[in-house]
Amino acid sequence: MLRELDPLLHSQLRLAVVSILMSLDEADFVYLRNKTESTAGNLSVQLDKLSAAGYVSTKRVIEGKKTRTLCRMTSKGKKAFEDYVEALKVYLNVKK
């Protein structure tokens, strides 16, 4: 039986962001923007959606005169990503 893919993670940019964050403790906004080659506005909107779902937490820190936004996966987000990958394996008929 095919499992439904999480529509929140199925978006290309959101999936890219979550995939990057899964391998890091945290990443700042500029790093994510550069790695995903997205615009600041689009990345901001997608991070807001992931944050609203409880998949990603964001924290603003001040360093000197600059503000950095740090992003990290939440336990809920990690579980959602792992479920998404498992669902993909079913679609691809990948054996465990």
From TrEMBL:
Per its record, how is this protein called by name? Answer: Transcriptional regulator
Start and end of every Winged helix DNA-binding domain? 13-91
- Matching Pfam families: HTH_34 (PF13601)
At the top level, the lineage of the source is: Bacteria
Known InterPro entries for this protein? WH-like_DNA-bd_sf, WH_DNA-bd_dom, WH_DNA-bd_sf
